[in-house]
Amino acid sequence: ENFKPAQALNSLKLVDNHLRTNRKLHFSVIEDEEDDVHFEIDSSTGDLFLSKELDYETASHFLLQVIIKDYNNNNPPENHTIFLSIDVEDQNDHAPYFQDDFVVIGIEENVPVGTLVYTFNAKDEDGSFLNNKIQYSLEISNMDENPFRIHPLCGTLTTAFPLDREVTRSVILTVSATDQAINLTDRRLDSLAVKVVILDINDNSPSFTSLPLSYVMEDVEVGFLVHHIIAKDPDEGRNGQVTYHILSGNENKAFVLDKITGLLTTAQLLDREIQERYSLTVMALDDGSPALSATQVLTIIVLDVNDETPIFLNQLYETAVCENQDPGEFVLRVEAVDRDAGLNSLLQYEILPGPGFENFKINSGSGELVTTASLDRETQEVFSIKGIPSRSSTMQLYLTVLDENDHNPLFAKTQYQISVSEDLEEGSAILDLFASDEDNGLNGEVTYALIDDTYGTFAVDSVTGSIVTTKALDRETKSQYTFRAVASDCSTHLNSALCGVTVLLQDMNDNVPKFEQKYYKASVWECQTPKTDIIQIFATDLDNGLNGEIEYSILSGNENSTFLIDSTRGILATNTVLDHENTSHHRFASSHHLVLLASDRGTPSLNSTATVLITVLDVNDNPPVFISSDYHIHVKESIPVGSHITEVSAHDSDAGTNAEITYAIISGNDKGHFRVDGKTGSVDLMKTLDYEDSTKFTLIIQAT
């Protein structure tokens, strides 16, 4: 197929027994319209030429129809047809080729040996078997040992050794595809660059690179960086992302750990004297699935700061030193401790400056205290000791000079006057007596007693001096108590002192006003002018002040405000003109029942009541009044003498004798025909009547 165009392939010759030499022949090739013309023939000589390059892979065989025309003595010419078969021999003119110029392949690092990684498929367009038969080979340039192998015929790439991404992240391979032409020099090849990326799996646990020991001063502020915890994980992506956690040892929440950065900071103030060492179990956890972890015990040592004050074993030391002893007398040994460490815990003792401190000296190292002069208890008894250098503590030393009973008790006051409420309950404290004695021990211990009669009303606590009531108080019975109290020491000589006590009882409104009588009677004449005094009533109240001031008022029975009472003096008087009788407009009773109220001015107010019966006495101020002013009587002239004619009646609103009526005929009875009964008003006939003499009598009757 590599024959060049214009070269003669062959010559067509006629067989001798058919054609004579020197014949005039014409050669031609019948062209197929569908085929591309690759051959030409010399029409005179019959030489066959290649007119176009051949391609075995396009056409490997040609069948040509050649026409030979013989013009010798033939008219028309004689035609001969020859079929020429031409085979094209293949030449290795195509190199194998890959579809891609560069391939990137990913494979997980934990696959077993022999795992198929990729299948290469190269093409060769040659037509013959050996020329298009491909064999694959593999080269590696950046490693001593190739972890992959390739099948020479199938082109399958497989793992030859275990992979480890943490050792080799990727491998660059050169894959070659070579055809198998017979002549080695004719063989062609193509190469492909392949990058095999080893994909990570979470096959590595985090490992700590930071130290497991850290130091921190105890006085650092909250939020101080204590330690940077670092753990590395050679895995990739989330498999290599590490977070940090405290598993144990942080029960008191002293520290906080940033899970992302691994920064460990203080979450609260530290105190070495409470805890000087922390052991935190810290976990580093990756984000793979499943997650892998590692733990480390981080020891944190808290370093001492001089932040502790020395503390005396006793805050108060008590001892007794006899007065008038020679200087150098041992008093006592004090001891203090400091919870700090090292130099911060070394102490030295001194006496604080103060009154009388020059009478003592202290050994700065041992804490032994001795006198430098004779002591006087009454002059100085309290001293303070301080620890140095950087911080200090004080204690108080009470030195007691052994006492003689050379002082009497002394009351704070020689005379007490107090006021107490009379409603105090039994057992109530009213006064705390206080007497001091500068002596010591029993010589200075004071007891109290009352030496005057308090009528069983008061008592004193012999120890505290508190005066209490022993029974209920009543100001109305006794308003003031005066007595004396004595304070005595407990020595054998019983030195004592006296004070006077005056107790004034304050009034409480505990008494109700009392009327002299519960029931009063009084009378008053009717027709008296208003404001006429009727009666004065009295009530008494044993209380004092406003509690004993009484106000009077009418509680009930005073209809129409007929009466009034002086609220201060208790005088009851009329408020209107009284009328014993009934009138057409008002009806007044002849007696009135009033309920009077006596109230004190205390808070709350107390009161009582009394009843007053007031009788209104009658005055003859009403004339008799006939029931009818005219009487018309018809009688027969024939009625006998002594007959009852009629009866007149009058009424008098007055009472008693003022209301007794006498009747008399004062006019019209000149001849004495009639008589009226003076008591009953009965009119009787005394003489015979004669119609012809007199047909009518007009009698005027008087009621007196």
From TrEMBL:
Alphabetized Gene3D superfamilies for the sequence: Cadherins
- Which compartments is it annotated to reside in? Membrane
Q: Which residues form a coiled coil?
A: none
Q: Tell me where the signal peptide lies.
A: none
Cellular compartments per GO CC: plasma membrane
Alphabetized, the UniProt keywords read: Calcium, Cell adhesion, Disulfide bond, EGF-like domain, Glycoprotein, Membrane, Repeat, Signal, Transmembrane, Transmembrane helix
Q: Where is the Cadherin domain?
A: 1-98, 107-208, 216-312, 313-411, 412-515, 516-626, 627-704
| Molecular-function GO terms, alphabetical | calcium ion binding
Its primary localisation, in coarse terms, equals membrane
One Pfam family this sequence matches: Cadherin
Q: Is the Membrane keyword given for this protein?
A: yes
SUPFAM superfamilies named among the record's database cross-references? Cadherin-like
Return the InterPro entries for the record: Cadherin-like_dom (IPR002126), Cadherin-like_sf (IPR015919), Cadherin_CS (IPR020894)
Q: Could you provide one GO biological process annotation from this protein's UniProt record?
A: heart morphogenesis
Q: Could you tell me what this protein is called? A: PCD23 protein
Q: Which gene encodes it?
A: Dchs2
